[in-house]
Amino acid sequence: MCTTCGCSGERPDDSPGFVLDLRGKGAAAAPPPPSNLEREEKSRRILLEQAILDKNRRIAERNRGWFANQSVAAINLLSAPGSGKTTLLERTVRQRGDALGIRVIEGDQATSLDADRIAAAGAQVLQVNTGTGCHLDAEMIERALAELRPARSSCLFIENVGNLVCPALFDLGERRRVVIAAVTEGEDKPLKYPHMFRGCDLVLLNKIDLLPYVPFDVRRFESHLRTVNPHARMLPLSALNGDGMDAWYGWLEREQTGS
Amino acid sequence: MHELGVVMAIIDTVVERCEGARVNRVVLQVGKLSAVQPDALRFCFDLATEGSLVEGASLDIVEVPGSGRCRTCATVLALDQPYAQCRCGGSDIEWLSGDELRIVEIEVQ
Questions:
Q1: Angle at A120 between CA A119 and CA A125, to 5 degrees
Q2: In chain A, pLDDT over 90 holds for what percent of residues?
Q3: Out of A49, A134, A228, whose CB is closest to B83?
């Protein structure tokens, strides 16, 4: 089950990456829970006023500072499973890998299949497996950076776990968020997953080579996107046949030079 | 979704701040636009607190309604979802409230 969503209802006590084990956090000395009467008699309040995701935010800010210091253009790449993130990255690495100094952090629940594809395309890549977790968080990226050590002024893609819900909530310290949607998905995706589309800077509408075969109205999709996010740019492209990729490369080059 | 991860972050913070005492009550503020469902939080909370100093604590969730200001005409709108269209036709809305995701206070023994 996904230990973050808790979607299947099972106890995730045997998950490899994210284990629900609170031992060592006060559990060993914990007496049995008190009765309601005992609670009322003895309790005292401690004001916290703390953001729940504060720890992730702090690490994300540290990552952002490191990226800025090293002039690394960090791009968080997000989409539903199967929208074409890895295919887009493969083509981008093959055509611009050297010019942009592309490095990749691959986030998947399991396997190194995507990292193998990126390595075969010619980029330095690190696979991060989240086990049953359904998103990358800032701490995972901090650890990955220590291992991958992206060169100064490189372009770092962080391919998030394929999921349009959970990753929206977790800042990684990236400079830009790019969401990929495919014309084989519904036109209403921005309305159905508003948090994801609201927080992005650029939407790549992929698989436009399939437009003659699927009932997908690009203008309708763009109108839904504008409802949720009036500022995001949208670039239609096909990572398979290369249509529209030059505009994507232009956007990346501008990001890398900071203009 | 993702509420179990959020609950784990809550437990980490509460255990850090409870001064080693058993926790009776945790009070949260959860905004309507925060992408977190209170019911799912409650479900995960009972499961995830087992065996910790937070086990058996009650979880009080104060839900905060969403509101925003239209950046085109400055009208203030109630928001039930993360987007809206203003009467002026604008959809560029600055959120004023509703994205809260905070631990307000805890009660310990």
A1: 5
A2: 78
A3: A228
Domain boundaries, chain B: 3-66+97-108
From the list B48, B85, B101, the residue facing A51 with the nearest CB is B101
User: What is the pTM assigned to this prediction?
Assistant: 0.86
pLDDT per 10-residue tile (average), chain A, 259 residues: 46 39 44 59 88 95 97 97 96 97 94 93 94 90 97 96 92 98 96 96 98 97 96 97 98 87
Q: How far apart are CA A170 and CA A136, in angstroms?
A: 7
Topology of domain B3-66+97-108, CATH? hypothetical protein PF0899 fold (3.30.2320)
CA dihedral A163, A167, A168, A174 (to 10 degrees): -130
DSSP 8-state symbol, B53: T
A252, A77, A9: which is closest to B4 by C-alpha?
Answer: A9
Residue pLDDT, tens place only, B26-80: 999 999 999 999 999 999 999 999 999 999 999 999 999 999 999 999 999 999 9
pLDDT digits 0-9 by tens, B2-14: 888 899 999 999 9
Q: Give the rounded distance of the alpha carbon of B53 from its chain centre.
A: 21
The correct CATH number of A54-257 out of 3.30.460.80, 3.40.50.300, 2.40.160.50, 3.20.20.70 is: 3.40.50.300
Q: Angle between the B3-17 and B38-49 helix axes, to the nearest 10 degrees?
A: 60
Interface predicted TM-score (ipTM): 0.90
Contacts of A228 in chain B (CB under 8 A): 82-83, 91
> Hey, are the CB atoms on B15 and A25 less than 8 Å from each other?
yes
Q: Which residue has the tokens 């702090």?
A: A58
Q: What is the 3-state secondary structure (H, E, C) of A116-158?
A: HHHHHHCCEEEEEECCCCCCCCHHHHHHHHHHHCCCCCCEEEE
Which tokens in the block code for residue A46? 């401690």
A195 in contact with B, Cβ within 8 Å: yes
What is the number of alpha carbons within 13 Å of residue A205 lying toward its C-beta? 25
Nearest CB to A3 within list B4, B19, B105: B4
Which residues have CB under 8 Å from A224's CB, separation 6+?
Answer: A187, A188, A189, A190, A191
Chain A, nearest residue to B72 by Cα: A230
